[in-house]
Amino acid sequence: MKRLFVSAFAAAGLFTAPATAQVALKPDTPHLLFWSPEQQARWYPAMETIYESRPIASGGRVHALPLAARKIDPTFNHADRTWTVDQYMEAYRVSGLLVIQDGKVLLERYGLGRGPKDRWTSFSVAKSVTATLVGAAIQDGHIKSLQTPVTDILQELKGSAYEGVSLRQLLMMSSGVRWSEDYADPNSDVAKGPLEGLKLAEGKPGLNPVVAYMRTLPRAHAPGTVFNYNTGETDLVGILLARAVGKGLAEYASEKIWKPYGMEAEGLWVTDPGGLERGGCCMSMTLRDYGRIGQFVLDDGVIDGRPVLPPGWAREATSKQIENGQAGYGYFWWMQPNGAYQATGIFGQSITTFRQDRIIIVVNSAWPRSGGPDLRDGRTALINALRQAALASGP
Q: How buried is residue 46: exposed, middle or buried, by Cβ count under 10 Å (0-12/13-18/19+)?
């Protein structure tokens, strides 16, 4: 039933999960959740050929990531066997693996035909970048504070369940608005929202389909009290942010991070049916630029002594703000049992940072499924081994 349902949406040219929607350039594009391994390896580095995207311009400057004098190449135990890094990369279909400590590269490897200049899609790692740009907008004065009511900026939501919800509560996934993110249920919000939103926005110029759908949802909990993973609201934050700064997310990301911090290559950001970059999904960048995102946040968003983010923002965003039944959740960042904070995307995308060790580990993958405990546990075993190897190799 799940495959039949997904195929119907794919025929309509919409990507419906794990976020709201984006328009495929070709109507016969298969659904993203069910791309074959060959399609993953071919299209994850070239999402702009599949979906409408906007460039994130880089500048002439490149933030250096020099090679460390030492290298690491650990073996580790997992699932009743001993693994090398190369064996893990082959078994878990890793396209890129990067380990940085104190701003220097201890390990950098590629797979699935990818090279250093090739981009790779982020999936929900984009959420963490969106939250970082919210911090920049507060620092710039475009947004007054995290306590700003959502309806102050998205006035189309007045009179909806978003009345009384703050921006901070959206970033914590705790708006209290009812939302179901069940990809197998054709009646879930994440499944029906895209087409419903398009219908609701039809004939209403300026009304984004995401906003059109989200404002129909009822209240389930008091704002700020219950964590509920909601990719629709992360796209809503992206729309709110674009409205506040008066420009698209790709342009703002270029202005605040890509150019001044020194990303080495142009990035890409997939757009929704309303033509806005999606706050919840699908940026593309090189492996080292993923590492630079991690380093920028680890360094508190300071460039050449100039703060791009409000004082304390980066640490607050990457610390537990709400219980989520796991290790906690910040502002679109996940806390991990091993003490790290992590930007995470399906099919094996992650930026994992151990703040106290100043270690950043980037993994880009094409897992055979969107997720699952076995896949996540394997990655955690690798990450823990890489961290221990970095610590054991000396400062």
A: middle
pLDDT confidence of 63, banded at 50, 70, 90?
Answer: very high
- Rounded CA-CA distance 345/121 in Å is 9
Q: Measured between alpha carbons, how far is 239 from 282 in angstroms, rounded to an integer? A: 15
CA–CA dist 46, 44 (Å, integer) = 5
Burial grade of 42 (CB within 10 A; 0-12, 13-18, 19 or more): middle
Instruction: Give me 115's structure tokens.
Output: 């090279």
**380: left (phi > 0), else alpha (psi -120 to 50), else beta?**
alpha
Domains in the chain, CATH or no CATH each: 2-27+37-63+98-392 (3.40.710.10)
Q: Vertex 256, ends 255 and 261: CA angle to 5°? A: 105
pTM exceeds 0.90 for this model? yes
- Identity of residue 53: S
Confidence label for 350 from pLDDT (cuts 50, 70 and 90): very high
Q: Is residue 381 packed enough to be buried (19+ CB in 10 Å), middle (13-18) or exposed (0-12)?
A: middle
